[in-house]
Amino acid sequence: MPNSTSFINAGLGLALMLAGTTMAQSADLGAKDEPIKLAMLEWTGQHVTTHIAGQLLQKLGYKVEYVTAGNFPQFSGLADGSLSASVEIWLNNVGDIYPKVLAAKQIEDIGKLDLKTQEGWIYPKFMETVCPGLPDWNALNKPDCIKALATPETAPNARFLDYPADWGSRAATILADNSMQYTAVPAGSEGALVAELEASEAAKTPLVMMFWGPHYALAENDVGWVTMPPCKQQTNDHCITPPDVDKIVWSGFGAKWPAAYTFLKAIKMDAGEQQKLMLAVDKQGKDLDAVVKEWIDKNEAVWKPWVDGAKG
């Protein structure tokens, strides 16, 4: 039978073991009392991804702040640590500052979000009867197709609905590169693009347009994507290539919040799921946090491995 000294020693050993475990857990979480500041950019899909990350980081035991940031200015904040992370960065639109702060090792690219992006020319599915041969781009060159798409402002050319003028676009260049009988007409806004797509679908008015995904409009409109014509030059001005989407953190993030770093490296975003959540927020007027919470409640099998992996 153990004596009282043995009980004391055993109790002391247990206390030290528990203390060590607590210290290890604290070290794993890192600076859990300092908020992780997540960049909120200009589009709803990014808000969805960021709030999913934020709510799951809170489940891990972290404090989270959502900080409004511009797509280019965010990199200054990430470089100096005033922003902690940006979880959905489209690498086709990062400006001149991104490669500089990346080369200076002020930020760290922690991998792909696995968000399947799309960009190019779309059409409502009924157009496949108006322009037989779609989605092959050559179908757009047939006289009957050009005639169907012509409008008083573009005739004898067909009308191509382009991005708003201040966005910049390669569509007009690619049309000219391939001697296509089309006039690119800029839309007034993102909302105008969506409105034309919806009106075309409802009235069966012929339409070919520039667009991208994920987007909530793709969750409620049946569209086809044109198989694009060849690129005259392999540059952004003459080619449309769906961009990669990566996750970026401040260079000191991993040392400060180790478990959060492991989690953010693991998190992924499915484009179809994101589009549904965007539709709920943008079109149905639902609260972003409530929509994200509902998704988290219903999709534990998706995110649990990310959280469990971060716990170690």
Describe the structure concisely for a colleague:
This protein is α/β, with parallel strands linked by helices and 312 residues long. It contains 13 helices and ten strands.
Explain how this protein is built:
Strands 3-10-4 form a 3-stranded antiparallel β-sheet. The protein has a 3-stranded antiparallel β-sheet with strand order 8-5-9. By secondary structure, the protein is α/β, with parallel strands linked by helices. Helices cover 44% and strands 17% of the residues. It has helices at 4-29, 44-60, 74-80, 97-103, 127-130, 143-149, 171-177, 190-203, 253-256, 258-266, 271-282, 288-298, 300-311; strands at residues 36-40, 64-68, 85-90, 107-112, 118-124, 158-162, 182-186, 209-213, 223-225, 245-250. The chain contains 13 helices and 10 strands. Strand 6, helix 7 and strand 7 form a beta-alpha-beta unit. The radius of gyration is 25 Å and the shape is elongated.
Keywords:
3-stranded antiparallel β-sheet; alpha/beta; 44% helix; elongated; 312 residues
Topology, pairings included?
Elements: H1 4-29, E1 36-40, H2 44-60, E2 64-68, H3 74-80, E3 85-90, H4 97-103, E4 107-112, E5 118-124, H5 127-130, H6 143-149, E6 158-162, H7 171-177, E7 182-186, H8 190-203, E8 209-213, E9 223-225, E10 245-250, H9 253-256, H10 258-266, H11 271-282, H12 288-298, H13 300-311
Parallel strand pairs: 1-2, 6-7
Antiparallel strand pairs: 3-10, 4-10, 5-8, 5-9
Helix pairs in contact: 2-11, 2-12, 2-13, 10-13
